[in-house]
Amino acid sequence: MGAYRIGIDVGGTHTDAVLLDQNNRVLSETKSSTTVDVATGIYQAMHEVITNSDVSREDIGYAMLGTTHCTNAIVERKGLNNIAVVRIGAPATLAVKPLVGVPDELRIALGKYVYLVRGGHEFDGREIVSLDEAHLYQIAEEVKGHVDSIAITSVFSPVSRDHEERARNIFNEVLGDEVAISLSSEIGSVGLLERENATILNASVVNVAKTAADGFINALKNEGIEAKVFFGQNDGTLMSVDYAVKYPIFTVACGPTNSLRGASYLGDLSDAIVVDVGGTTSDVGVLINSFPRESSLEVEIGGARTNFRMPDLVSIGLGGGTIVRIQEDGEFTIGPDSVGYHLPEKALIFGGDTLTTTDVAVALGKVELGDPSKVAHLDKGLLTRVYLKIVELVEEAVDKMKTSAEPIPVILVGGGSILLPTELKGASQVIRPEHSGVANAIGSAISQVSGQIEKIYLFDEIGREDALEWAKAEAKGEAINAGADPDSLVIVDIEDVPLAYLPGGATRVRVKAAGELSQ
Hints:
Elements: E1 4-10, E2 14-20, E3 26-33, H1 39-51, E4 60-66, H2 69-76, E5 83-90, H3 104-110, E6 113-118, H4 133-143, E7 149-154, H5 162-175, E8 180-183, H6 192-204, H7 206-222, E9 228-232, E10 238-240, H8 241-246, H9 254-267, E11 272-277, E12 282-288, E13 291-292, E14 299-301, E15 304-306, E16 313-316, E17 322-326, E18 332-338, H10 343-346, H11 357-363, H12 380-401, E19 408-413, E20 427-431, H13 439-446, E21 449-458, H14 459-462, H15 464-481, E22 490-498, E23 506-515
Parallel strand pairs: 1-4, 4-9, 5-6, 5-7, 7-8, 11-19, 19-20
Antiparallel strand pairs: 1-2, 2-3, 9-10, 11-12, 12-13, 12-16, 14-15, 17-18, 21-23, 22-23
Helix pairs in contact: 1-7, 4-5, 9-13, 11-12
GO molecular function, one term: hydrolase activity
Organism: Oceanobacillus zhaokaii
InterPro entries: ATPase_NBD, Hydant_A_N, Hydantoinase_A, Oxoprolinase-like
């Protein structure tokens, strides 16, 4: 099998593809429009990037896909699984039902089969009440033939996953292996409702992930490529197809994180702020040791509050296709709406009728693109004010992400990054590296594989050192399951937070391990 890699990233506007050699040098790159069915855009980008290079198909050993399939399915409520929601936590948690605070249409789509079962654990691992197995058998018979995915959440399962695992075994026994089962202890962190929501959303997009994976594998086969396939995940690392179909929720933010990883590689910086300018929005994130800084807050997806690993990002409604409106009195507004992938027909420089941020940059001579004579009549003084405002919006977002007043390097990537200047307030330097337009696809192609665990340990009982060693071993095990080479694993992130409100030296421990792809 060859050592060359294809990286593909599906964005809202463009599907980008790159082909890298074994030293991660870019051999060919392409941008094609994202299509309504997504798969066609992937086929086109892949075919182009291979055709444009002189690489034989046998030399391509790896293919990585960063996709928005699952996010879009949740936001648009399309193609979701028929799911059952099982919470093990009666009688303790009856006051707050599952799917509380989730938008009505999502609750209607996902809340047809909701069950509360006796069981669950205390924060220290003791059973609240024993698990009601008879009830679980009854539920399994009831949902047979009606659901194809089950979300199981038990109280304090990050401490003890016994009840969740027993429930899974019962459902497998009655329903067989065809029904996908998501366990909250494998997905979210401490905090019952947010962890439950993350698990429900995960269960709801299993089919979407399967379809995306099959489509990608078939696209490769049609091109005559026998490659190992990986998906990008939220923390900027990869996971195998099997892992991605089991945990599809971990793909929802892989676009921005791929851009951050690609920016780190292209700019040769491990600590920096990255501004990824797309067609519709700009994402601003922070690199720490070459990986995206993670958010410590709950994250809303499609209106549901969740708590699993997500990058810390600020998104602003500013991209290459953002619409600029100028009033009679010389006042103006920038966005937040955009012409998106219609830029080549809508923008003034391409003969369209809509003034966009790209037109402003071309009229001021900042960018060479399209037909500058079509914007020559515009008032330069006014456009200069608009341009300064565009830059200010980006500087504000960069400032929000900084943790100190010290200047820090800024890396500009994404197709729309050509709009921005090479000096920004608060930046020690501004780099727009070569191939920056496809940084996201490069990020997906060069990624490592990771595993992460988060658990509560009682340090009074087992001691801090032993607890951390166990956690590291578990995180490495997760990374190996996801497709990492055991010999290359390193611990890239470790944190322990004492839970002062719990006795016994209770501490939440989170560990992440990452390594190279196993050959």
